[in-house]
Amino acid sequence: MITSAQAVGVNVFAGFADKGYTGRAPRGQTPGRAAAVGEGGTDMGLKANGLTEGYRGPTYYELAAPGELDWRPHRPGGYAAYRRDWDLRGKSGLAGDFPLHLDIDPTNRCNLRCRMCPRTHYLETGQNHWAPNGLADLDFGLYERIIASSAGRGLKSVKLNFLGEPLLHPRLPEMVALAARAGLWVMINTNAVALTPELSRELLLAGLSDAFFSFDSPYPGEYEAIRVGANYRKVLANIASFMAIKDELGLKGVQTRASMVLAEGLADPEGIKSDYIRLFRDLKVAEIGFGLPTVMGRDYSLLPSPEGFVCPDLFRRMFIFNDGLCGPCCGDWERRLMVGDANSEPIADIWNGEAYRRLREAHLSGRHRDVPACRDCSVPYLSGVGA
Ligand code: SF4
Is the pTM of this model over 0.70? Predict the structure, then answer.
């Protein structure tokens, strides 16, 4: 078991000196969103690294490790059915009675100021539409009510993350345990800065099913320039420690993934991807994800309108901000599309309510550009095709 940062450093960091490429992520390039269907990615390095192609979307794609690192055989049968439902809802335009998945933000606080993050962009430009009441943690009582009213209604998974860094919520392990006891798959996206071995153990024992690490360069200098406030070696050691504790606990069904945003203008994207894959293959992280950036400030509405675009997330997932307001997607940082308030409305009422009905209808009838937030969103334009 690897628990020492120094020991991990010796093994992991060798050969990953900065390459001095010119294409740093410009401020305001945000991660691509895995929301729609289309092209993207490359087969580079698949054979050499023993990886297979995983999810592929217009703005994001994944590579997956087969064999002993594959977590899927260790999940009960219901998981495959849930994933089939996920795809089906996105393609069919049928929303069912309840969301399959909730993205719940434990906090809108963060311990970093990453250059490609819209949160950083909005904070630095004084446009905190997403935090009108300041930076704060989700009320635990509200979280309990959301989970209690969702269990047994068709909800299959929660991701405890949206705008902030979930590890900063002091009761995150309890939140994971509550959702896991309700029979849900429980995921987090994290920058892993605060992922101590103690917290890793707590989260894994609480029932965390999926851990997605955001780590934006295989090179120390570039990483620390992009993820402002993070220490490359320390964060990698945290991830290594999480992986070791997962193995020690025999949790083969826990999915792990490391992902980075491929900024525009990189001098050697294939070399960077190859180094990134090697870095996380050494740590036995099961999946690697590469996102294409959405550029803050670019006017996507000027691009040609794709015919027949229907946003798949409208039919399968809902996002709950740390203050309880609910939105339909991760693309609406300015909160123009709010569909309800979990403080005062049951999740089922919001999902089947008028705001959602109008939004779905606009998309299904080919009028997504009539919705200002969707007209300005990168997802339809990066997808280039109907979903
Ligand atoms: S803004 Fe509209 S098109 Fe973009 S992700 Fe949200 S619902 Fe989909």
Answer: yes
